[in-house]
Amino acid sequence: MEYLSTTAAPATAIARIPGIIASIEAFSPTIKTWGVVGFCWGGKIISVATSTTDTPFKAAAECHPAFVDPKEALGIKIPLCMLPSGDEPVEDVKKFQENLSVDNHVETFADMIHGWMTAKGDFEDERKRGEYERGYKRSMMPVSLEPEHSE
């Protein structure tokens, strides 16, 4: 856990974002609009990074986010998709969504384990692979393009 409060602390990770974006834009100057996806601890980083008025991101997705804190949802400034697993605390996820004031899509994949979208994904099991594919597609779809938001 020391790693999460030092090297991977939100403030440390967020401080790196402008330099990463500048490097990519220098290499590919046509890229000017940014979205972000975070898995596990990356979800925590997204909750904090998208709470600033100068966030460079236009939309975000969190997949099986670690340490879901409903208070962090209060500050999020951009559309957010959150895909928790069945291992994330149900009440924290519910309160997090209630606290969001931006367009959002929160969908719990209750029968998936924490890490199902990354290293712990079971791609040999057809159903689990299908849920991974559904989660991947869902996380890449802007909230504004959800079926219930379109005509």
UniProtKB/TrEMBL annotation:
Residues 21-126 form the Dienelactone hydrolase domain. It holds the Pfam family DLH. InterPro entries: AB_hydrolase_fold, Dienelactn_hydro. Gene3D superfamilies: alpha/beta hydrolase. GO terms for molecular function: hydrolase activity. This is Putative Uncharacterized AIM2 family protein C30D10.14. It comes from Glarea lozoyensis (strain ATCC 74030 / MF5533).
